[in-house]
Design goal:
The strands form three sheets. A four-stranded antiparallel beta sheet has the order 1-2-3-4, covered by helices on one side. Strands 5-6-7 form a three-stranded antiparallel beta sheet. It is α+β, with helices and mostly antiparallel strands. A hairpin with a 3-residue loop joins β8 and β9. It has one domain. The protein is elongated. 51% of the residues lie in helices and 18% in strands. It has six helices and nine strands.
Length: 229
């Protein structure tokens, strides 16, 4: 056995914060950008409502959509943590070696060879071992003893490093989905602003006529004195 593959024993218990970080890493850059867009929609919606209360029909939906996007990751993590039951809330004792990943909880135990894993990813506080594109094991770095994090990483790199690097070079389908979401959001925002501007009116006086639309300069209100009969 290679000394680098010496067994690594760890114990941990996941938290809701761990799941939130894991889902953000799994979702890629799109998952990180979405809350920012959500916050922007909320701010712009509130400002637009304050400036033009009559246009709440278009601004309130923007605010609600922004709030949804802003809190989506937290909502997903909370539901996953609660619905996961023992799988997400139990204390886990595990051993990683040249043979694979072996884990024991209060309700289950299992041993998985490295061939069953497709790749791994790493975030600030977590390692994620993927069995498929959607299913993965979460291992917090805090579970590693002093110096154990580097040994853990070396073991993963030895068995899953090649597949992980190949996966990172691909443009993931999830990335395209986020791109589409962002484009749709921008289009909706622009349409909302256009509708608000179209509804702006200059109230004509007694001796003034309504404005006329000038194709070259946009909406220009031309005030003309009415003829006095």
């Amino acid at each position: 056995m290679n000394p680098a593959d010496a067994p690594i024993r760890i114990a941990y218990q996941l938290t809701e914060k761990d799941l939130r970080e894991a889902l953000a890493k799994h979702g890629g850059k799109g998952a990180k950008v979405l809350p920012v867009f959500g916050a922007c929609f909320v701010v712009m919606g509130v400002v637009s409502t304050a400036l033009s209360p009559k246009d709440y029909v278009t601004t309130v939906p923007a605010i609600l959509l922004g709030l949804f996007w802003f809190g989506l990751s937290r909502l997903q993590a909370r539901l996953a943590y609660k619905r996961g039951g023992a799988m997400t809330q139990d204390r886990v004792e595990a051993e990683l070696s040249y043979a694979g990943f072996e884990s024991v909880t209060s309700t289950s135990s299992g041993k998985t060879s490295w061939k069953a894993f497709t790749r791994y990813s790493e975030s600030k506080n977590l390692f994620q071992l993927y069995r498929s594109n959607a299913f993965f094991n979460i291992v917090p770095k805090r579970a590693c003893a002093a110096g154990g994090e580097e040994a853990f990483r070396s073991l993963l790199e030895r068995h899953l490093g090649g597949a992980s690097k190949a996966y990172r070079r691909k443009i993931k389908p999830r990335t395209w989905v986020w791109i589409v979401v962002v484009i749709v959001a921008i289009v909706l925002l622009v349409m909302s602003n256009v509708m608000i501007r179209k509804r702006e009116r200059v109230v004509p006086g007694e001796n003034e006529s309504v404005g006329r639309y000038q194709p070259r300069s946009g909406y220009v209100w031309i005030l003309e004195r009415a003829e006095v009969g």
